[in-house]
């Protein structure tokens, strides 16, 4: 459904992605792993339309999207959950969901039900400011918002980063439940999460795709995966 074909991406004159190609089949959950600075966030931001490749193409269901603005990419059914876990802090939890419902053209009740089904505790927090949520709850809210409107493709950048083990289990459960309904590219450093959920893994190093792992035995082998971090 998604094809990233030999893209180069630069910040000003500094080229950070070099000839990167990845693909995603319908229904797959693919993980991207690599050290800090490898270019993982840059890759997701480029697919989401926030950065333009200087070379190469990106296509979604056979149509080129690399020239589109982020809103246009979103309208084609791509949702990007950034690494920074930023919610609209001054709005309530409900207000955050309302904005997503409005943007996606989904009825509010349906959007609320969708997010609450991920994390029923939000029922007690709907009128609270989103800024008061824990890091894990913010991430869950962001993933929930991203699911509003039934997107085709989710791009999630380091969902478990900085979270306590117990909340990582919540995120794991949510990602695991999503596998049925949505295709996803997830950047993640928690190799236990990666190895349990990945259909395939791309290893990034210094702005390039160093390897692609497809063998289930390799994907399960977290000790081996450690070598790439
Ligand atoms: N806005 C920017 N301007 C200039 N260089 C940047 C910018 N953002 C990132 N870079 C550089 O691009 C390279 C790739 O960064 P990127 O954030 O994509 O890596 P990453 O793999 O997501 O790292 P991390 O694991 O720390 O999140 C790094 O060398 C980084 O310093
Ligand atoms: Mg990053």
Structure description:
With 229 residues, this protein is an alpha/beta fold. The chain has a domain at 2-86 and 153-226: Rossmann fold (3-Layer(aba) Sandwich), CATH 3.40.50.300. It has 10 helices and 10 strands. It has helices at 40-47, 70-75, 93-104, 108-118, 122-125, 135-147, 165-178, 191-197, 216-220, 222-226; strands spanning 2-11, 14-24, 29-33, 55-60, 63-64, 78-81, 153-157, 183-187, 200-205, 208-213. Bound molecules: adenosine-5'-triphosphate and magnesium ion. Residues 40-41, 83, 157 line the site of magnesium ion (MG).
> Which value, in Å, is the CA radius of gyration?
17 Å
Strand line-up of the largest beta sheet: 6-7-8-3-9-10
Please identify the top-level CATH class of the domain at 2-86 and 153-226: Alpha Beta
Which hetero ligands occur in this complex? Answer: adenosine-5'-triphosphate, magnesium ion
Summarize model confidence as the mean pLDDT: 95
Q: Number of helix segments?
A: 10
CATH-assigned homologous superfamily of the domain at 2-86 and 153-226? P-loop containing nucleotide triphosphate hydrolases
N→C terminal distance: 28 Å
The residue ranges in which pLDDT falls below 50 over 5 or more consecutive positions are: none
Based on Cα principal axes, name the global outline.
globular
Main beta sheet: 6 strands, mixed
Q: According to CATH, what is the topology of the domain at 2-86 and 153-226?
A: Rossmann fold
Structural class: alpha/beta
Key terms for this structure?
229 residues, alpha/beta, Rossmann fold, 6-stranded mixed β-sheet, 4-stranded antiparallel β-sheet, globular, binds adenosine-5'-triphosphate, binds magnesium ion
